[in-house]
Structure formats: C-alpha cells, structure tokens
Amino acid sequence: MVSTAKRTLEMQLLLGPDEAVPVAGRFGYRSDRPYEVEVAFISRGHTVATWLFARDLLLAGLSVEAGKGDVRVWPVRRPDAARRVHIELATDDSVCELSVGATELTAWLEQTAAIVAPGEEGRYLDMDTHLARLLAGKC
C-alpha cells in the first residue's frame, strides 16, 4: 500500500529585493518513491510548473545551504521576521527563487518522515520493479 503526504503551502515568488508574488506550492510525497518530492506550483488555480527533487535537499535546506545545479535550498533568518526557506530552481534559460515559511515546510516534512524515516528510503524502494520499468522503456 502506498502512503502519501500532501499539503499546499503559501509561497512567494521573489521578483526583486522588495517585490514578490504569491504562489501556492502543492507538495507531494509517496512511500513508493521515497527519495523524491513533487512540488506543483499553482497560480490562479492552474498548475504552471511541476518540479521533482530530492527530499534530502529540503531537509538539509532547513538549516544549511544545500544543492547544486538545478535546485538549491537554504534557510533565511531575518531579525524581525519568521524564518523562511528559499528554493532556487534553474533551467537552461531561467532561474526563479521562491520562499516558504520554515515552520510550515518543517511540519510537512515531519509528515513525510512519519511515512518513511530519513535514511530508511532504501527499505521502501522496489528496485526490481523500477529496473524492469526502465529496461522496458516505461519510465
């Protein structure tokens, strides 16, 4: 049986030092894909982009800068504001930076850890099934 954790979190798409646009991030996690997180970014009721990346990046990014290349995550602490986590997503032609509340992200990550504890992902991954799908060209 597949267990899931889903939550929509209020995010900010950062356009400049003092300018941001609200965006919803629908975070999803599945026990049969224990290493990955899917985030669908929603604006005006429509999914505008979906990204897959490692849950470990989000976990590490709560306390230190994590990631290289396409996805980077790091904590932001300002004296007069709630803690936030920034997520940078890069493609060949563009980069966007988003911000999410650290408390809300931590609560969702705790839900995922209740499903599959960090470090235990290998116990939940059916490598034979995934390898068969890969070799059959169904991935």
What can you tell me about this protein's structure?
This protein has helices spanning 55-61, 102-115, 127-135; strands spanning 4-16, 19-30, 36-43, 46-54, 71-76, 84-90, 95-101. Strands 4-3-2-1-7-6-5 form a seven-stranded antiparallel beta sheet. It has 139 residues and is α+β, with helices and mostly antiparallel strands.
Helix content: 10-25%
Strand order of the largest sheet: 4-3-2-1-7-6-5
Low-confidence stretches: none
How many strand segments? 7
**Tally of separate helices:** 3
Radius of gyration: 16 Å
The end-to-end span amounts to 21 Å
Beta-strand share of residues: 35-45%
Q: Which structural category do the helix and sheet elements fall into?
A: alpha+beta
Overall mean confidence score, pLDDT: 91
The H-and-E topology, N to C, reads as EEEEHEEEHH
Short description:
The chain is of the alpha+beta class. The chain has helices spanning 55-61, 102-115, 127-135; strands at 4-16, 19-30, 36-43, 46-54, 71-76, 84-90, 95-101.
Secondary-structure blueprint:
Elements: E1 4-16, E2 19-30, E3 36-43, E4 46-54, H1 55-61, E5 71-76, E6 84-90, E7 95-101, H2 102-115, H3 127-135
Antiparallel strand pairs: 1-2, 1-7, 2-3, 3-4, 5-6, 6-7
